Amino acid sequence: MIERIARPDEVRRWPGSIPVSHRYTPGVAGQAFLETLRDRGVILGSRCDRCRYTYVPARLFCERCFAELAADVEVGPAGVLRSFAIGFVGVEGEPLESPLTLGLVQLDGADACLLHLVLDHSDEPLEIGRRVEVVVKPAGERTGSILDIEGFRPVEG
Ligand SMILES: [Zn+2]
Questions:
Q1: How do beta strands 43-48 and 73-75 pair?
Q2: Around ion ligand 1, which residues have CB less than 5 A away?
Q3: Domain residue ranges in the chain
Q4: Which of 19, 32, 42, 92 has the most crowded CB, counting CB atoms within 10 A?
Q5: pTM of the model
């Protein structure tokens, strides 16, 4: 018999963890995106001409019409902050020493937004619509990771 749970705080539970690990590959377009970021410090997207939509990061097919795409469009390095959130706790619920700002940025030439840190060291409040630019690590320090991007920095204009 299935009992309806009326008070979730009274449910019996056993604390535990399941040891599961994952390893993902970036795929063909993701590989091109990461290698271009590493080698040239450039952000690559993919354009679907049929849908008139440019994806970032680059991808192998259009999510709207399933057309085959190529990682062949350079976007940014500047763009517009479309949304942001400020985090005060980490993924495990631990308090952070200093809050982190995550931003959704629509880079110039792109339709999709890229999520990354916002490097905002000023006392000026951050606003949606603000112009930002990508900050990439120096050439010798890039490894082909999304963390080769340090984040987005607000710029004038
Ligand atoms: Zn399409």
A1: antiparallel
A2: 48, 50-51, 62, 64-65, 67
A3: 25-154
A4: 32
A5: 0.82
